[in-house]
Specification:
Blueprint: E1 13-14, E2 21-22, E3 28-32, E4 37-41, H1 43-48, E5 59-61, E6 67-68, H2 76-82, E7 88-94, E8 99-106, E9 109-112, H3 117-124, H4 128-132, E10 138-143, E11 152-157, H5 158-171, H6 178-195, E12 197-198
Parallel strand pairs: 6-12
Antiparallel strand pairs: 1-2, 3-4, 3-5, 6-11, 7-8, 7-10, 8-9, 10-11
The structure holds zinc ion (ZN) (2 copies).
One zinc ion binds near residues 18 and 41.
Length: about 200
């Protein structure tokens, strides 16, 4: 079990690279691929790391695109294959390991699925959104459909997945998370759904 500890961004953070004060509306994140952690950054520092290969690739800027694939072929049986105990999971491509990593929120933080990676490669590997995933900085975010049907699936900035994990960690109660956690999850996915635009002819940035 591996834990990531990230909470919601505080209103006034400082850039972990240059020390500048970062206001909430210009708060960016970099993935520190050595430490597998997020670093808060100001806009100018984030811009420096947007090109692949910048600074030897250790810090990678998290993009801000949200994509949905209205034609995705995942169905509810995918969920059984994935063996994720909760109704939400996210997947990212780890460049160093060169494979997809599956994580889900739990009261302990982000928990890595122990499932054989080939299982979700089979389920997700051929999807259009999976093909567009920028390694380490973007994730496929899945939520099991309420009452059957197709799961929701989005390509999102990876930092919002850790934000969700932080929120769930604070609110989760009992076996199913409890009413407050479920309402928060609902609001979170509503926001993601509103921001996401349908994928069409996108390429990896
Ligand atoms: Zn900075
Ligand atoms: Zn931050």
């Amino acid at each position: 079990m591996r834990r990531f500890l990230t909470g919601r961004p505080v209103p006034q953070a400082s850039c972990e690279l240059c020390g500048a004060v970062v206001a909430e509306d210009s708060h960016r994140h970099l993935v520190d691929t050595d430490k597998r952690a997020l670093a808060c950054a100001c806009v100018s520092c984030a811009l420096l790391f947007e090109r692949p290969g910048a600074a030897g690739g250790r810090f990678r800027a998290v993009p801000d695109r949200y994509l949905a694939d209205p034609d995705h072929r995942l169905d509810d049986s995918a969920w059984d294959v994935l063996q994720i105990p909760v109704g939400v999971a996210f997947f990212f491509r780890n460049a160093a390991l060169n494979r997809l990593v599956a994580l889900y929120p739990s009261p302990a933080g982000a928990t890595e699925s122990e499932l054989e990676p080939s299982a979700w490669q089979t389920v997700l590997g051929n999807s259009r959104l999976a093909a567009l995933l920028e390694p380490d900085v973007e994730a496929l975010l899945l939520r099991r459909a309420q009452g059957g049907g197709r799961p929701e699936c989005y390509l999102v900035p990876i930092d919002i997945c850790y934000e969700l994990v932080g929120r769930m960690r604070l609110l989760w109660q009992g076996f199913d998370g409890g009413a407050e956690a479920r309402a928060d999850l609902e609001a979170f996915f509503e926001q993601v759904g509103r921001r996401a635009r349908a994928v069409q002819g996108e390429v990896r940035p």
